[in-house]
Amino acid sequence: MKINSKSGLKTRRIFGYVEINLRHVLGKTWLCPSGALRMIFPLKFLPKHEAFLLMEIVYKFSTIETCDDYRNLFNDLNFFIPFDYATSGLVVRNNRGVVQSYDLLNINFTEDWISAYDEQKIYLVDVTVEENFKYFKTQCWRETYKKYDNPKKLLSFAHDYNLTNGYSCGAKAFGLYKKPSMISFVWNFEEKCEYISSIIDYITPYIHIALSNVLCVEMLMTKREILTGREKEVASWVKMGKSSWEISVMLKISEATVNYHIANIMNKLNSANRVQAVAIALQYGIIDFD
């Protein structure tokens, strides 16, 4: 165990990872990739007690699994980023970079705003979205609006909901759920604050990891419940290489019924054939490998 000269934290290397002794702060140690050590001790301009508080939030973002825990951490983050509203999500884009769909994990944006934003397809003209997925850097909305000559439809929409300024950030696809992210913090401040921007820069990859992991777990739980007990049974036999006729004999049902179940499995898992259906079922833990 040695003392890190910059942070004063006790660390030791273990097979490419660094164990950081945070017992005096969090009551535990933290094992992280060695390459991430330079990011662990936050921002030099923070007082030490605030730096440790931010480290605790970072640690929790790295380990949470539920949507409620994720939202609660944003309440803690509000100590550093004085936002009124926040939201986050992972997106799917086409070859031209246009958003096709998104998985939203909202913090406290109103349902009216979310519905109107989706129904009016504001994301297609939202220059903060374009800027995020082009550069993946922290941005101040007003500066982005100026860069794109103050887009009228977007600004009119923002004024309707009194959400005219904020910061957005995001990360390229990594984590369990391999999709890029966008996170937005909204409050109507007058001038850009480098202090806030630096904190958002620092915290972005950890929010992305949490967002990716939480949405992945949620998706897995949804997928696991998508097949009936009989369909899981049929899929398990297909996995073993059994034909429809062989499965019908073992389950004492007709071959037509087996094929009916297989067709349902393929439809529910959006697969082209029974082999792909089994692969998807295994990937999402719907059926076991053994």
Automatic annotation (TrEMBL):
This is LuxR family transcriptional regulator. GO terms for molecular function: DNA binding. GO terms for biological process: regulation of DNA-templated transcription. Keywords: DNA-binding, Transcription, Transcription regulation. It comes from the Bacteria. It comes from Solidesulfovibrio aerotolerans. Signal peptide: none annotated. Residues 220-285 form the HTH luxR-type domain. InterPro entries: Sig_transdc_resp-reg_C-effctor, TF_LuxR_autoind-bd_dom, TF_LuxR_autoind-bd_dom_sf, Tscrpt_reg_LuxR_C, WH-like_DNA-bd_sf.
